[in-house]
Amino acid sequence: MSYLQENPSRPVMTISHLQEMRSRGEKITTLTAYDASFAALMDRAGIDVILVGDSLGNVIQGHTSTTPVTIADMVYHVSAVARGRHHAFLLADMPFASYGNPDQALENAAALMRAGAQMVKLEGGRHLANTVKHLVEHGVPVCAHLGLMPQSVHTMGGFKVQGKSPEAAQLAIEDAQILEKAGAQLLVLEAIPSTLGQKITQAISIPTIGIGAGPDCSGQVLVMHDLLGAFPGRAPKFVKNFLATSNSIEEAFKTYIAEVKKGQFPGPEHCFKADA
Ligand code: KIV
Known about the structure:
This protein is α/β, with parallel strands linked by helices. It has helices spanning about 15-25, 35-45, 55-60, 70-85, 100-115, 130-135, 155, 165-180, 195-205, 225, 250-260; strands at about 30, 50, 90-95, 120-125, 140-145, 185-190, 210, 220. Strands 1-2-3-4-5-6-7-8 form an eight-stranded parallel barrel, surrounded by eight helices. Helix 5 (about 100-115) packs across helix 6 and helix 8 packs parallel to helix 9 (about 195-205). It binds 3-methyl-2-oxobutanoic acid. 3-methyl-2-oxobutanoic acid binds near residues 32, 55, 93, 188 and 223.
């Protein structure tokens, strides 16, 4: 991480800043990036968190899922993004099958941290509690990821909204609490009913970052290519193309940040409902 302050009025973001933002009710803005140029542009626009997502398997490499992405791919892209950003918090995905046990997870997380990540993200519920604890005890901050977990698309039977029944919602709330207790300091919630996004956010004290999880999460994340309308095919319901109404990519990033901060994005049209 570069500690050079490009703009001294905006500090290098840390997990403490994100926790303070949650406490004072300021929404945390997050976007994915995979290279130095886009990372620099969104950093200058004022993004709080940059996620080097394994969504790069889809949007960069052209796969139909994230499962082909390797730790070497992630290290390459995290290094590039780390060189481009100055202020944003840098979060990196652990790719498919790179955290099958606590020791494997630590070895692979260490590679991402050495490349410049400030925190690593893992997809999964309570079965990861020991892995999260092991990482945190060894100095690796952890973001958990619940709801739709793209790495499990083959076991989930497709990209489906999760947590719609009262039973599934209860399990997700418990998973969030168990992962927080294990030491997770951030939680991404993907494609769940807005009511569940709100309940999970209220049930834990760490910030939640939603993508299709409603307006009541502590912050929001979008895949950069979706925000720019740059990914062919039908966009998921939670996506908004911010470039369609902007004159430049930087303006699109700024509009996304402003709409999230003001609570205007996501709107009802981007949200999912629970089973009646
Ligand atoms: O890989 C990714 O981009 C993600 C986001 C969808 C949250 O995990």
